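Dear support,

I submitted the protein below through the web form. The confirmation email said the job was done, but the results page showed an empty box. After a refresh the structure appeared. I'm attaching both so you can tell me whether what I see now is the final result or a partial one.
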Amino acid sequence: MLFQRKIDGAMKKLHEGSDAAEEERRKEAGEPYEEMERPELEKGDMPAMIIAAFITFIPVAILVLGIILVAGYFLLH
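What the results page shows now:
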């Protein structure tokens, strides 16, 4: 290729800054892997997440169900 060295250099530089490269360096050095700390949930966080999930998924489910019903109506009549 015309710019193969530049492409290889860019890919190497991109990999060096990635999380995968950081994990490889830790494995080679024998350092244990650090897990990210989970945030503390407050009192109303779980109900808020459930309500947000319903607000997100219920309209999509209704739309898909409507499409299936309309397609069934036209295919069976």
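Response: this is the final, complete result; the empty box was a page-load delay. The radius of gyration is 25 Å.
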